[in-house]
Amino acid sequence: MFLVGLTGGIGCGKSTVSKMFCDMDIPLIDSDQIARKVVEPGRKAWRQIRNTFGSSVLEEDGQLNRKKLGQIIFGDAEKRAKLNAITHPAIAKEIFFSICYYLVRGHQFVIIDSPLLYEVNTWIRLVHVIVVSCDDNQQLERLVKRDNFKEEEARSRINAQMSMEEKRKRADYIIHNNGTINNTKNQVQNICHQLKSFKTHWIIRIGIVTIFAVLLSSSYFAGALIYKNLYPS
């Protein structure tokens, strides 16, 4: 099994592309969903956030007020680093368990959907990376409309991330999400077809089987040697 990264700029339509892959029955690990899961009330990361930032970042029912917390950390690098130190290890652990789950089930590849793929998830060894992109003006317009931001705030959110130009340079595949849904879907289908044509997963599986066989045979011969020394004929 090999790993494929899916990322893009805020407001570029990555969630739409992610759903298209899921509709094609491609296994996908959504880091945003995992990020919400690890801060559910009562969990370790939730308790650490409450102790670090206070109860003011919680709703009445105990749920994390993500918007309020975002306002606290957005302009404060030190507080943002504290939050990352709490959440990133928990998210990485859940992603690792999900990768193991799909590996055991014998999937050819798994897509890891992460908005901060280059900035945060550098520990993941990706074979291919897909970047969802759109025109700058369209990105700004979508963000203002989707999140009800003022234009200045939307620009600040965009500029806080790695530039789309840099993400496109690092990408193996680029999905240009400027046109119709059908146009985007056709690009997703083409990439999916190419990924399915790769034989990388067989190389990895053969390597795993070989390592397992070596370990098993080594254990057998070591056991036989110990037995022979303990019970010489």
Automatic annotation (TrEMBL):
PROSITE patterns: DPCK (PS51219). The keyword Glycoprotein does not apply. The keyword RNA-binding does not apply. Keywords: ATP-binding, Kinase, Membrane, Nucleotide-binding, Transferase, Transmembrane, Transmembrane helix. It holds the Pfam family CoaE. The chain crosses the membrane at residues 202-227. CDD domains: DPCK. InterPro entries: Depp_CoAkinase, P-loop_NTPase. GO terms for biological process: coenzyme A biosynthetic process. One of its GO terms (molecular function) is dephospho-CoA kinase activity. One of its GO terms (cellular component) is cytoplasm. Belongs to the CoaE family. This is Dephospho-CoA kinase domain-containing protein.
